[in-house]
Amino acid sequence: MAITLSRPRPADSDTMSLAEHLRELRRRVVVVGLTLAATATVAFVFYPEILRWLQAPYCAVAHPCRLYVTGPLDGLSLRIRIATYGGVFLASPVVFWQLWRFVAPGLHRRERRPAIAFVAASVVLFSGGAALALATFPHALRFLGSVGGPTLQQIYDPNKYLGLVTALMVVFGVAFEFPVVLVALELVGVLQPATLASWRRWAIVLIVTMAAIITPSGDPFSMLALALPLYVFYELSILVGRLLRRSSAH
Q1: Which residues contact 124 (CB under 8 A, 6 or more apart)?
Q2: Read out DSSP for the chain?
């Protein structure tokens, strides 16, 4: 009788012990940590280019567009902050990939395809929101520079300027995850497309109110630039939910 040896199947989340889970988590965390260190170093080296890119909205409304420091350590702290933010941004694909590799074994095969689509959509939408925030920031600066009156001389601290830019980009990026959340709730049956459609008027009021509250710059242009895409996303979520229901019915 011939004896055939089959290769052992890799352990999945159902057969892995707690110690194996912890070792796997440690390995993923080490990879993420080393990647963050490498990308932060790259961002530290290319600090002048990154600063010019972030300063571009200010240069679009002010000539000359100089940022003024008031302490001897301000320049160093600014460079470290930019290196940290830039490192996180550059490392984000690796972070998402390691997170996916850790979570994927616990998912059924039919669950992995929509999960990949949701992760990809989240990355694209967050990047789009951050890009929109940077594109609309010159209008916010014009409003903020004029609201105090013509007798005020604008002298910007680079750390405060960077804090406002990054806060605006993060808020827009997180807010752009709105359709992902709605579609996910529709997929699991918590919300129905007809329910979202019936809530349309209240949704408009809530979206505008939330955009006014969470916009860091507080200017009306940024508020509208955030509220309008969110309402479009709301309508698209209803459409996507209906398409998903039709495809599941067939």
Answers
A1: none
A2: ----PPPPPPP-TTT--HHHHHHHHHHHHHHHHHHHHHHHHHHHHTHHHHHHHHHHHHHTT-SS--B---STTHHHHHHHHHHHHHHHHHHHHHHHHHHHHHHGGGS-HHHHHHHHHHHHHHHHHHHHHHHHHHHHHHHHHHHHHHHT-TTPPP-B-HHHHHHHHHHHHHHHHHHTTHHHHHHHHHHTTSS-HHHHHHTHHHHHHHHHHHHHHH-TT--HHHHHHHHHHHHHHHHHHHHHHHHHHHHHH-
Phi, psi of 192 (to 5 degrees): -120, 145
Q: Which has the closest alpha carbon to 225: 132, 123, 126?
A: 132
Q: Which tokens belong to 32?
A: 């993420």
Closest CA to 85 of 121, 119, 50, 52: 50
Per-residue pLDDT of the chain (250 residues; tens, 9 = 90+): 444 444 444 444 455 677 777 888 899 899 999 999 999 999 999 999 999 999 999 998 888 888 898 888 889 999 999 999 999 989 988 888 888 777 777 666 766 677 778 888 888 999 999 999 999 999 888 888 888 888 888 888 999 999 999 999 999 999 999 998 898 888 878 888 899 999 999 999 999 999 999 888 788 888 999 999 999 999 999 998 888 777 766 6
Token pair of 210 as six digits: 């939330």
